[in-house]
Fold each of these.
Amino acid sequence: MSEILKNIEEKFSEYFRESHSKLGEDTVLIKKEGILDVMVYLKNKENFNVLMDLTCVDYYGEEERFEVVYHLYNLKDKKRLRVKVRVDEENPEVESLCSLWRNANWFEREVWDMFGVRFKNHPNLKRILMYDEFEGHPLRKDYPIRKRQPRVGPLN
Amino acid sequence: MENEKVKKDMYLNMGPSHPAMHGIIRIMLELEGETVVNADVEIGYLHRAFEKSCENVLYNGVIPYTDRLNYVSPAINNFGYCMAVEKLLGVEIPERAKYIRTIISEISRIADHLTCVGASAMELGAFTAFLYFMQAREFMYELLDDVSGARVTVSYGRIGGVKADFPEGFEEKAEDYFKRTEKLLGEIEGLLTKNRIFYDRLRGVGIISQEDAISYGIMGPFLKSTGIAHDLRKAEPYFVYDRVDFFVPYGEYGDNYDRYLVRMEEMRQSIKICRQCFKQMEPGEVKSEIPPEYLPSYDMVEKAKKGKTEGLPLKEAELSPNLKGQEKFRKVNINVNDKKVTVPPKSSTYCTIEGLINHFKLNMSSYGVRPPEGEAYSAIEGANGELGFYVVSDGSGKPYRVRVHPPCFPIMAAFPKIIVGDMVADIIATFGSVNMIGGELDR
């Protein structure tokens, strides 16, 4: 087990769920309540200064349906880390990371647009790729690929 | 009273369909006189459900979709996706395939930079320079055409290798074109680099600071222009980038002019990389004692149908032009030797039952390549920055989730911040240097 995973497990034992380094990629799964604390620690203490990617995976049928995936990058030591949190379908809400990284704004908007996962304290959580009148979240597994929706023109 | 009227803010819509917008994108501007005081960007006009489509096709079926992400350097997208799946599968591609991928990536990168700089020069009025750029890009497209059969949507990557080996005489042709491209680049630099108008339009415009670039997660020429020489080809070498000698250019001020210089230098470095690869590459054909005997594909199939297969598997099928370069003796060098990943050569598909079944199994719906359960993120240096593919497999023949991290997405997120304080006319120059590609931004 790599050092960074050990550090997270020791420092945040109340949030830590599991970790692995399969295929050479350090991955840690934490409880969603701890996401902001862990990220602040990783950014400031472990030097993961770039939020490379933020996305979500829909594990349809599992108890905690959505998995929000953060890819962090350490520009100095060229290291990568994947942090994941699970959220359930009834209350899909995670703390927003806009206060830490500026690009989190658009990434989180995209995840909200595509999966319907909300981000608490996000300044401007609205759709980004789809239009505002679109109903549903297209990348959810229960959204049919052939479904059509009426095209809506500009409102004014 | 008069003054107040002048000071009143004006709102202006740039786009979605504007000739200077490279894709369809809407920029809402709040102006004070000609200065931008506030801006907002709206994207999504080119959204065509790339990620959703990927979840509904076989692993190999995703490759043509990746062409349409960054349609100026599609081969890099192909390789990025293939790398992620290869990581999941745990296979390593043959040496020659690594060299081929490196060369084709660099040729694509040159084409991408030529398009980006050429188009932005044209938008600033330098139409002559644009034509020089297009001539050089035509050379690159012709080289891509020679190896893949298509100019733009190449679909050249394959999981576990590449589609075809280089045709005969490719190295000489490439060297000839590289020389001519270098000459053209020299002429372009003569026209642009110290051109007073060009310099004044770009220097000190569209500035982004180092902290902002990192906070927005911007990579590629944008980050390099701010003074951080970060390049994945050096930082985490893939293919054969650790065996070639090249230099990562970086700027100082983070403005449009630095980005122009970085791109111009990167093209020269790419040519340098290609030359070294050609030198290091082993000859592609493994010489067999008996040179392969060719037989028309039709005859081969007819004979095999009648059961007259004696000696047939030793012969080589005459392939149609779009399949050239994947004969049996070439395929062993460019594709990984794994029946669960690589489609068999055509000659064994046509005349042996094992080859036919293997071919079927890899192409039948819900069969195909089946990586074990897991997730993999693989990053590759695209022309605009880090191009990442995050692939999740559930063990079936179709990817459970394919996520693309498009390089220009964070740049567009930062775009309002970059243009605030500049003039309206500067937006065109800045937007040109962003090299926004609608296909990968909106997916």
Amino acid sequence: MLYAFKISARYLTANKGQTVLLVTGVAVGVFIFIFMSALIGGLAEFILSRTVGDLSHITIAAESDDPAILVTADGHMLVVTERGQTRTATLAEAATWLPLIAAVPGVKAVSPQINGAGFLTRGGQVSQVSVTGVEPGRESAILDLESYMIEGSARLGSGLIVLGTDLADDLALSLGQTLRLQSSQGVSAALTLSGIFETGNGGMDGARAFVSLSTARTLFAMPQGVTQIEIKLDDLNMADATARHIVSLTGLDAVPWTDGAEQLMEALNAQAQTGYFLKTFALITIVIGVASALLLSTYRRRPEIGIMRAMGAGRGFVVFVFVTQGALVGLMGGLMGASLGYLALLPFPSRDAFRAGTLPMDITQGSYGLAITLTVIGAIFASILPARAAANVDPVTAIGQ
Amino acid sequence: MTALLDVKDLVKTFGTGDVATQVLRGLSLDLAKGEMAALLGPSGSGKSTLLTILGTLMKPTSGRYHMLGQDLIAAQDKELTAFRNLHIGFVFQFHNLLPDFTALENVIFPTAVREGRESPAARARGRDLLVRMGLQERIDFPSTKLSGGQKQRVAVARALMNSPELVLADEPTGNLDRASAMQVMELIAQINREEGTTFLISTHDEKIANLCRRQLMVGDGVLTG
């Protein structure tokens, strides 16, 4: 078969112009395949990082206490609820679970939090806010608060508060100024504005306040425990499995981000399907291109095939010559397309540096090996028809040409 | 002399029904090892068809064809291909060299295709044959750059590469000038004498035919003399 390989290579080098065109055609197909892989993969990364990146990948929230039920003497049930929504459910033993959760494989950060509602007042102005109390030093564990700071510091401490830029503008606040925060528990505290952030998310920038966990304990009258634990993972795609692991480990109600994100997942799946279609079309184009070029070559070389058959070359030998040609074209085009694809993707920012306004191309998701392998397989598949046609050439008729 | 091939009542019909044309009409022939025979006859008499059948490139409609004791009509394509490679050489009117190969590569093709590689032994024999054909200066020349006579001598060398018992030559000098034609025929005669290779040469040229020890006349699909 070494000799058949030599003949295949000779046929390809004998018509350099035609071979270069054919290989270039295949390379363009592979380039499109790689470009689409990097774009679709990068886009998915970008969307996820923008929508989920700053959110908790797994959240363990305290379960609300069920209302008390009293059974009267006549068998009627009385449900006893508290007036208003002032009672806050707590994870009383959070401190026990935190080291255990932090040791779960794939967990990047754990942030115990106390969340609640409150009112910010300064002078005659009042704004409703969502208050999050986090441990000092873990301000950027889930939401990368530090990276969004436009003024001051994200560092929280006793008597300090960090606000979104819209909220600060609404209250005409600047760094170092004091304001009053009254919690839904009716506790109020005077706090100093130590930082202003801007995430670009209106809800966050206009109605979110961060305080230290100790401040939140005072505000929400919660001397121990937390209202929720937020967990960040190394790979957000592992959220479902890691959440199940945490549930089995702690018995707590760990909810992955994918719960309630069905629409996002559907959109990402639809996007991935689009990518598969485009890549399939690129492959089909390669197969058709190789098949048509080799069919032409077979037709042009009919007399030679006839001579080879007359000299004792079997049908298998002829098939091998043309299939090898297809494989070589696929391999060369695959390598060329993959190299061009890699070079074309180099100028794009890496996945960690995706920014709005740029194409989120992820060079690591180019599927280079897959592209080359599928192209070689496709080219071999494409060459089978021409190869069989070549093997069936009647030597008498062919030599007569 | 020992019998090489034996053909009996060979019939070949092309087409069917009203357009059926019978080219061979019960032709019988035997050739002994070491013979050098000329096949004469007008155009359309069936010379080329006979050579094609003897070369196992085409099957007859009916009849019997044995060579080296083997029934070549019953044999399958794979067996015929192997048989042809080992025992039969071809020289065509238009040389039919592989255009993308050198003279040497063309000559060693029949051995290389059998062995699956261009062995040093095959290359050595190919060189010897080309030297014998007077082409020592053209061994590594691209076949397309050779003259007509040179191409035909390369074709003769290729036909002899596997030391076949039979070489079938269809108008081997038909496309050459007189000097080249005589040169090729002298080489064929020399190989026939020295190696005992059997040659069956189809020709219109009586001078060429006279160089052969036996002349066979084909007419109307049968041997007439």
